[in-house]
Amino acid sequence: MTNQFFRLLVKRTSLVLSFFIAAVIISACSTGALAPGLVARMDKPGAILDRAEALNIINQYRATRGAAPLSQDANLNLSAARLAKQYSINGTPPAKPRGIVQIRFSAGYANFAETFSGWRNRQSDADAIADPRAVRAGLAVVYSANSAYGTHWVLLLGGPIVSSEAK
User: Fold this and answer.
1) The pTM is what?
2) Per the record, a Pfam family (predicted)?
3) Is 140 helix (H, G, I), strand (E, B) or coil?
4) What is the pLDDT of residues 61-92, one digit of tens each?
C-alpha cells in the first residue's frame, strides 16, 4: 500500500511539474497563453485531440532545433491511434513500425501540453522529435478507464512518402 501511495504521489508531482514546464516553454514560443487544444483534458471518454494545435507546438519546437516543420498525415494518425489503443490494452509501449523514422509514446498525462513537456524534457525524446529525417506526423491519444495510466499517447514521425507507400 505504501509503495502504491508513493508511486501515485510521484506521478502527481511529476504531472504538476511537467504542466508548469510546458506552460513556461509554450509561453516563450507564443503570446503567453496556452491554446485551448493543448490543455484540453484527454482523460475522459469522448475527448477529442486537437491535432493541429499539437502539431503546431511540435513544429515550433522543431524550429528551435533547426528542423523543418512536419505535416499532418492521416495514415500516420490512424496508425498512431491503433498503436495507442493496443498500448492502452496491454500496457506495453509499442514497437516502432517498419518505415517509421521515430516513435514516441507516453502514458498518464491528461493533456498534450503535459505530454509534450515530458517529451521535450527527456533528451532522447527531444532529439527524436527534432529528427531532421521526419517530414510527416501522426498523433493519437486513447483513454482507457481500466488501465493504470488512463491516457496513452503515440506520436509517429515519418519520412517522405515513397512511391510504394502512396499506392
Assistant:
1) 0.76
2) CAP
3) strand
4) 999 999 999 999 999 999 999 999 999 999 99
